[in-house]
Amino acid sequence: MTGRDRIPPGTEGRDHAEEAERAFFGRRKGKRLREAQEERLARLLPALRVALPPGGARLDPRTLFPGLDPDGVWLEIGFGGGEHLAAQARTHPKVGIIGAEPFVNGVAKLLRTIDEEALGNVRIRDEDVTALLDRLPDACLDRVYLLYPDPWPKRRQRKRRFVSEASLAEIARVLKDGGLFRFASDIDDYAGWTLARAARCPDLDWTAGRAADWRQPYPGWPGTRYEAKAIAAGRPPTYLEFARVPRT
């Protein structure tokens, strides 16, 4: 039995509205930035920003890390304050990591860590990730993370959830054979939503073999402050992992 056979009851239906145009994120900016944060945005972000090439050309993500010759390239979609991304960059200095986050306060927090720790293997897309995914070539990423995304809990809002059949197909397209897509959420409904849509993606296979595989964090998981708050509030997270099915 493969992962896609183990789908929680009640999640089989398809929401056709999810294919419509959606805004996946909320605010672009929160509280006013401090002077040091503004300075880092002006000084560091231009050199780290992932810009799309003109004319609709594809973007080879390895070219974003000159001098590194990365062992692989990972993408984190919606990195929040950048805690997980920075921890991975620290632990895997030979991996190039792209973080996509339109919330400027989160970008400012990550830039502080990059600056203070001289993390040279991080690049930032400070816009919605959809356009970036569209420009990436096939089979160019080794790993994609989507951690604690906004659940948009109200029924009328669910079309704004990032996970859809279309977005999963795009993630599968850019993953290398055997590459991993990792999704974590403390919202059971969103976990079920993701499983149901992943089950309809022929290019992704749920790697879980037992219940502990989705109840326990990933190997080397650093944790996040949001996760700690969720657990303290009685919302245990679900950790889902999908592998890219080898191309024939």
From TrEMBL:
It catalyses: guanosine(46) in tRNA + S-adenosyl-L-methionine = N(7)-methylguanosine(46) in tRNA + S-adenosyl-L-homocysteine. GO terms for molecular function: tRNA (guanine(46)-N7)-methyltransferase activity. S-adenosyl-L-methionine binds at E76, E101, D128, D150. It holds the Pfam family Methyltransf_4. It is an enzyme of class 2 (transferase). GO terms for cellular component: tRNA methyltransferase complex. Pathway: tRNA modification; N(7)-methylguanine-tRNA biosynthesis. Substrate binds at K154, D186, T224, R225, Y226, E227. PROSITE patterns: SAM_MT_TRMB. SUPFAM superfamilies: S-adenosyl-L-methionine-dependent methyltransferases (SSF53335). Belongs to the class I-like SAM-binding methyltransferase superfamily. TrmB family. The lineage of its organism: Bacteria, Pseudomonadati, Pseudomonadota, Alphaproteobacteria, Hyphomicrobiales. Its EC number is 2.1.1.33. This is tRNA (guanine-N(7)-)-methyltransferase. Keywords: Methyltransferase, S-adenosyl-L-methionine, Transferase, tRNA processing. Catalyzes the formation of N(7)-methylguanine at position 46 (m7G46) in tRNA. It comes from the Bacteria. InterPro entries: SAM-dependent_MTases_sf (IPR029063), tRNA_(Gua-N-7)_MeTrfase_Trmb (IPR003358), tRNA_methyltr_TrmB_bact (IPR055361). It comes from Methylobacterium dankookense.
